[in-house]
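Action item from last meeting closed. Structure (365 res):
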């Protein structure tokens, strides 16, 4: 039997520890592979830029902010979590969820499931006899100019109830913000996907979310079991940033064009009824306000961006997915930036935040 010296045994134990450490490191690399393939963490931002990002993040913190994340190119250059929040904790996007419906529509157009100009009544055939609803297009539905009221904010109706809502105005004449049109769109997609035996959310996952490695922690559903398209998604800041990066890059991911850039660009064209709102995204343009009495809650919820734009001094190509309590995904292609901000209910203001982040100013005037 071969004997091993005390020194040799010590050497073997050290070698085993090194092998275990290498194995553990390899496992960690595998575990974090999706994140590493998506983002590179690097201090490519200048000191001046980092100072501005910090100024904005501290403003957010003071207004019950939970996260601020800045992507420049494909790199996370700034990340801050406050008020008890953490990087791995998902948070409700509220109406920030709505923009997924616009991207779903773009995918459906490419797959020849629908067109923006087609009548909703071609699918919701119950509408054919209604003098107003029979004329509503998919584009008007998602631009929130269908003439159908938005419904109660934060309380999406079931699909079956949504399609019974009355059209109080002629299509294309009035902007009305709320969850009902998105639930109607959910029913449109549900019916179109029936022959494929695929749900709207499964379709979105297959076409967009899974290919970009985006994990939705929770997607709330109504009592009918259908996903709440206006407000149901819970995401971490990093996961939401993936969606922003995909949009900023014109529908391209890891060198592959998942959605046509030209079709995606239709999401960033406003309507005559409200130039400040595109196809499920807010635009940095003045709206057609003032809005009516019925819209006062909406004005408070989105900080009057429907009238004043997102940030008057900001780039024209600034677009935004926005949810109640200051959930924000800002996308600025001209500056190669994606910015996530999550928070709780407060008097958070987009212009004040962006004045700090983009210009280093503590005031917007």
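Sequence:
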């Amino acid at each position: 039997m071969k004997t091993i010296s005390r020194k040799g045994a010590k050497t073997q134990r050290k070698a085993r520890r090194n092998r275990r450490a290498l194995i553990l490191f390899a496992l960690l690399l595998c575990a974090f592979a999706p994140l590493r393939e998506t983002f590179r963490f690097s201090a490519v931002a200048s000191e001046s830029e980092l100072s501005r990002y910090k100024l904005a993040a501290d403003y957010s913190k003071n207004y019950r902010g939970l996260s601020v994340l800045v992507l420049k190119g494909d790199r996370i250059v700034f990340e801050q979590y406050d008020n008890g929040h953490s990087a791995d904790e998902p948070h409700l996007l509220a109406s920030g969820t709505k923009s997924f419906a616009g991207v779903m529509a773009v995918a459906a157009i490419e797959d020849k499931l629908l067109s923006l100009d087609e009548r909703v009544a071609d699918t919701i055939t119950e509408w054919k006899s209604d003098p107003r609803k029979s004329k509503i297009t998919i584009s008007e539905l998602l631009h929130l100019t269908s003439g159908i009221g938005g419904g109660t904010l934060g309380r999406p109706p079931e699909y079956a109830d949504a399609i019974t809502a009355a059209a109080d105005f002629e299509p294309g004449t009035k902007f009305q913000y709320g969850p009902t049109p998105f639930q109607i769109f959910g029913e449109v997609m549900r019916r179109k996907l029936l022959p494929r035996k695929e749900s709207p959310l499964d379709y979105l996952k297959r076409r967009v979310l899974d290919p970009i490695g985006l994990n939705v922690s929770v997607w709330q559903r109504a009592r009918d079991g259908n996903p709440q398209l206006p407000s149901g998604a819970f995401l971490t800041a990093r996961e939401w940033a993936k969606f922003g990066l995909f949009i900023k890059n014109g529908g391209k991911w890891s060198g592959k064009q998942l959605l046509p850039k030209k079709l995606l660009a239709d999401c960033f064209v406003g309507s005559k009824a409200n130039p400040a709102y595109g196809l499920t995204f807010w635009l940095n343009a003045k709206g057609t306000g003032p809005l009516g009495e019925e819209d006062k809650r909406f004005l408070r919820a989105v900080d009057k961006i429907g009238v004043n734009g997102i940030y008057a001094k900001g780039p024209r190509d600034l677009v935004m997915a926005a949810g109640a309590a200051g959930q924000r995904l800002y996308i600025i292609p001209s500056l190669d930036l994606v910015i996530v901000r999550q928070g709780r209910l407060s008097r958070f203001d987009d212009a004040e935040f962006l004045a700090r982040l983009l210009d280093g100013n503590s005031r917007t005037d």
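Note appended to the action item: The mean pLDDT is 88.
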